[in-house]
Specification:
The protein is of the alpha+beta class. Helices cover 18% and strands 29% of the residues. It folds into three domains: 28 residues; 207 residues, no CATH class; 73 residues, no CATH class. The strands form three sheets. Strands 5, 6, 7, 9, 10 and 11 form a six-stranded mixed sheet that branches. The termini are far apart.
């Protein structure tokens, strides 16, 4: 028979209290560290997307015909600024049209009525046949917003070459961008990603299963991006007639319905503390679309994963694959301008 003496019971109680105290301390320190994390978290995000050549008959998995992706709370600027250049400044530099002008003329711009905004013929995603596989960007030593980096900053070149030469796969996208990463998923903004062909480009008979549309998609009056830039640059007036910011009349862009690319979805990168340690997390929610007998078929992709920087991570799907690598970027300390220095500091 085992008899619990008061001293033994006291030791057991003290161990339990000590363990509880340690657990509470670790939990509170983790919550405090997350709440007071003022670290300047920036990362270079390299993404390599590719599709498999296997036809629908080779895929046994069934996908939902409706994909509910919340694009309203996402950031589309990364891709849209590359695919749809802002040509408003060039358009305002064109001469005033004499007489009646075509709605989509790029030789001149109409003279607006008093207090009437200028309506410019805007470039849209409808006129883009496919998203470039490689997006070229620039180096900003002290960035403030998300932006693409030069293609020379890519490090997964060998993987890209292998996928390109593999007869069973085709690269859809391979670029790297620099972005801030927030602590807490609730503070992060998902990035919208577009890749592949425009499945509705020049195909007015395409029907969408997602929205159950019966009428055909109107893709008339398309103007290619290259032709648009060429025509505007060719018709720029002399430097002295260029309109400056304080002379600009408010601009109203013509709205266009968005087409459907092969891949369209969100990639959310954020930091979450686990036991007091910050870990990178990726939450991907995308749709991969195939065109079968004039019908767009969606195939949902939804994965969440904790990752480590400087490591290559692979996300698999029956129709496509995604390879991601994050690399920490530390922004340099900004130099204080001379006019802000304390002139009496050394006196």
């Amino acid at each position: 028979m085992r008899i619990n003496t008061p001293s033994k019971s006291l030791r057991v109680t003290m161990r339990i209290l000590l363990a509880s105290l340690i657990f509470i301390t670790v939990t509170l320190s983790s919550a405090y560290a997350q709440q007071n994390d003022t670290t300047d978290w920036w990362f270079d995000v390299e993404v390599l997307l590719f599709k498999y050549h296997a036809g629908p008959e080779g895929v046994q998995e069934q996908f939902s015909t409706e994909i509910d992706i919340d694009f309203d709370h996402s950031d589309s600027s990364l891709f849209l600024t590359q695919l749809i250049p802002d040509l408003r400044w060039l358009y305002l530099a064109l001469p005033i049209c004499e007489g009646e002008s075509s709605k989509h003329s790029f030789d001149c711009r109409p003279q607006p009525l008093p207090l009437e905004p200028i309506s410019i013929p805007s470039e849209s995603l409808e006129s883009i046949a496919n998203v470039p596989v490689i997006m070229d960007g620039f180096i900003n030593p002290y960035p403030e917003t998300i932006h693409f980096l030069p293609e020379s900053e890519r490090e997964l070149i060998e993987l890209y070459k292998n996928i390109r030469w593999d007869k069973t796969t085709t690269p859809l996208f391979h670029s790297v961008w620099r972005q801030p990463v927030m602590v807490g998923e609730e503070n992060a903004t998902p990035i919208r990603i577009l890749a592949g062909k425009n499945l509705t480009y020049g195909s007015p008979d395409v029907l969408s299963v997602v929205e159950d549309i019966e009428e055909s998609v109107d893709n008339t009056d398309k103007v290619s991006q290259v032709d648009l830039i060429t025509q505007i640059q060719a018709n720029l007036t002399a430097p002295e007639t260029v309109i400056y910011p304080d002379q600009i009349i408010p601009i109203r862009e013509v709205e266009n319905t968005e087409p459907q690319f092969e891949l369209d979805g969100l990639l959310n990168v954020f930091i979450r503390y686990v036991n007091g340690v910050p870990y990178l997390h990726i939450d991907a929610h995308m749709g991969f679309y195939t065109l079968e007998n004039g019908i767009l078929l969606p195939h949902e992709f939804k994965q969440r994963r904790r990752i480590i920087s400087q490591q290559v991570h692979y996300f698999d799907h029956p129709y496509f694959g995604m390879i991601v690598e994050l690399r920490r970027y530390k922004r340099p300390i900004k130099e204080v301008p001379a006019e802000n220095e304390d002139l009496y500091e050394n006196r």
